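cron nightly-structures :: item 1 of 1
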Amino acid sequence: MLLKEFILWQVGLSLATKELKENSVNIEQKNREGSTAIGNPAKKLKNPLLTHYVNSGINLLDSIMLELVLKDTFFDMPQLLETATQREKLVSAFSIHEYWFDIGHSETLERAHGEWK
C-alpha cells in the first residue's frame, strides 16, 4: 500500500508511521490561567492515554529529493523532511498496522532477536 499510494499521489517523500499508545502518569496539565498543574494532585490527569505517531524507518523518496541533500555533509531523514516541507515539496505519511517496535537501542534489538527465534 505504501508504494501504491506513493506512486498514486506523486509525492517526493513518504514516511511509514506507526501509531503508539501509552499510559502516562505524570503529565503536566495547563489550567485556564496558563500555569502548570504540577504539584497540584487534584489537577493531574490520572493515567491518560497518549497517542504518538513515530517514523517506522521505512521511507520512500523520489530521486528529485536528492537535490535537497547537502553535499559532503551529514544529512539525515529529519533534515530532509524539514527541507522538503520548507520548500513546499509534497510529503506524505502512511500508517502501518503490522507488528513493529523500535530497534534503535541494543536492548530492543536483542528483544527482537529473541522474539524472532
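cron nightly-structures :: done
The CA atoms of residues 29 and 35 lie 9 Å apart.
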